[in-house]
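Example record

Each entry pairs one chain with its bound ligand, glycine.
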Amino acid sequence: MSTLKRRDFLAAGALTTLAASAGASVRPQRREPGDDHRGPAVIASGNGLAAATRAWELIQQNRDTAEAIVEGVRIIEDDPNDMSVGYGGLPNEDGIVQLDASVMHGPTHKAGSVACIEDIKNPAAVALEVLRRTDHAMIVGPGAKRFALRMGFKEENLLTDRARETWLRWKRNSTKRDDWLNDDELDWQFDDQGHGTAEQARALGLDAPDFTWGTVHCSALNAGGDLSACTTTSGLSWKIPGRVGDSPIIGAGMYCDNDAGAAGATGRGEAAIHSCAAYQVVDHMARGMTPTEACLETLRAVERRTKQKRLLNDKGQPSFGLSMYAIRKDGAFGGACTHPGGSFAVAAEGLAEVRRCVPLFE
Ligand code: GLY
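Structure tokens for the complex follow.
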């Protein structure tokens, strides 16, 4: 089916297909302004406006969608102030930055991914080389670094002073049953930047969070109807060394089907993995759902499958954050999150802005 015919088919047959598909929900579909958008666009997680804007510029210059989004997320990977991605990302429990990324190319339906890669600033670009130059889908750990070096990537220290200080603060406060003094036990400011007290740490933005799952996702649709998706992250902060999140897992942290749409996730990676979340969003769109509804329906499945008490709040809802982002073959786009506060970025004709994700739980 040609691109145009396929697009028309999706637009006209959306609800019919939805009703006809086995087990599909018949509840009214959530429709946000982005669901009415048509034509090329780039979407990203809320921290990815610069990535979406850059990728949009590149697809306007006829760059391939996968190349455009990988160039877009490079801006975030290079930014030391985004402590959830690339250079400056928060490290694992040993203080080592391990990065995960994946990219999927709609026209060839190929994917490439790297996990637990160290000392390489731009894992999404390495994932693109896996996709382009190998017959593999995933390369991990020391093998991923070796592969990157062979591809000409530079070895670099990714642990910034700010990330190192934040990690140290987490480490010394994580238990009193070790030889590290907690903040409330310090009687001496131990460095000339005054990182010794909780107030000073907060003022410097060095507050050590319990755990964070920051990430950047970006998906693009060009004027020819081709799609690509990419997700890149430093993963869960303070993770057990070797932990792999959803970002490099094809179908969990991102997925793309050139006939249907592209999607990605940020937030608690384990939840996205357990529900093949990005794949589900794309599959829901293939069955005719609006992107917003496809994201919400996926989060409802995540909710249904969250059984462990430690992951539920006092209302019995998943207590963690998980956000889904989607763009459909016809250019409709949207985002949803478990709890209020999530956002997504969009760049398209006359558009470069951050919008609210629809929360599953108000
Ligand atoms: N979603 C990022 C991670 O869990 O690693």
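Confidence is low (pLDDT under 50) at residues 1-24, 192-196.
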